[in-house]
Amino acid sequence: MGPKKVDGVGVGLIGLGTVGTATVRILIEQADLLNRRLGAPLTLCRVADVDTTRERGLDLPPGLLSADVDGLLGDPDIDVVIELIGGLEPARTYVLQALQNGKHVVTANKALLAEHGAEIFAAAEEHGGDVAFEASVGGGIPLLRSFREGLAGDEVASFFGILNGTCNYILSRMTKEGADYEEVLAEAQSLGLAEADPTLDVYGLDTAHKLAILVGLAFGARVDLADIHVQGIEAVTPLDIKFAAEFGYRLKLLAIARRQGDAVQARVHPTLIPDHHLLADVSGAMNAVYVTGRYVGQLMFYGPGAGGGPTGTAVVADVIELARNRLAGAAGRVPPLAMPWSRLRATPIIPMDRVTTKHYFRFAAIDRPGVLSAVSGILGRHDISIEAVNQKGRQVRGAVPIVMLTHEAPEKNVDQALRMIDELEFIAAPTARLRVEDLDAERPD
Ligand code: HSE
Q1: How much of the chain, in percent, has pLDDT values that exceed 90?
Q2: What is the pTM of this model?
Q3: How many Å lie between the centroid of ligand 1 and the Cα of residue 202?
Q4: Nearest-atom index, ligand 1, CA of 110
Q5: Which protein residue's CA is at the shortest distance from atom 1 of ligand 1?
Q6: How far apart are the first and last CA of the chain?
Q7: Do the strands 104-107 and 80-83 form a parallel or antiparallel pair, or are they unpaired?
């Protein structure tokens, strides 16, 4: 057993990894400041982790760390449980158990909330517990709190987010150095910037989890994660990044959300954005979200989206909020998704083939007369209007790249047109395709 709570609020933490270690460090090093902010003592009573021997550079009070999760979840001294083990199980079971035991929960677990949010938020309402998850999206950026409270008086029309530091780091390096995806990924892994298994990051799923949370918060919409269109960065080439740059665009993996009548657009894919836009300058492992509100206009949030220190500050801020609620007897005062769970509306996500976007294409064409007119003829018959076109020199390995920007066109038409174009005998390889968002044109409806 660790320290006993004498007065104030008791805290238990499960999962002493990178974020857990930073959180404990802040709670110990800043105890005096945090107690002053709270106006009462905050006591870290127990920490649980399967590994109790690894050196973490922390000066822990004797008995604080153990592998005893059940003891932590049942400890009457503990008011707030911090879950930092990540993944779906046993995190889901621990969070539900904590709520059933009358505790409040802080978590950084975006996958858990995106997959099992309905069950967790309903359990919190049933048991009168608070659930806070600032660290789950945008690391150290006070982002969810801004949506929940700062924008409580506005109606969000759209937002665009760079929400995965690993992908943004890889794309930034590919853009700056013309390096290949595989090469940069391998280097990021060897530096410890990318996970040994980077699947969730590079295939866009981590971004989709964060998008699902933000859509709930921003639009009061309950959406099904499975309906979010998700495309990662694994097929991006430095050649397309370079050609798109010549049209004035930069490539980012974006989480895109837009209210559209009673439905929403919610999609994740590599996206070309104007190189003069603020989001284009968000480089390396940084995160940012660009929001348009009906009354406030445009806002941008920017900061470190990962790492122990930044994410730890978000966890501790949540602990302080829940401790304040506890002391004031005001659990549930600010609902986690900005309105009571029962007030969120089940909202359809517009299927991708009904979304309308601008496109960049790169055709691999055999260089001979009539090629461009055949391609543009097919595009024209599908109502796809061309904004700009450029042939990149003469033949490379039997084909010449022709790059093109289109005006807005329905995805369905683009799918059909590209299928026909790729069947033409003088098209030597499948057409490369990237979606384009001209963010400066963003206006609330
Ligand atoms: N893997 C995440 C990223 C960490 O690369 O941004 C924070 O969720």
Answers
A1: 91
A2: 0.96
A3: 10
A4: 8
A5: 201
A6: 57
A7: parallel
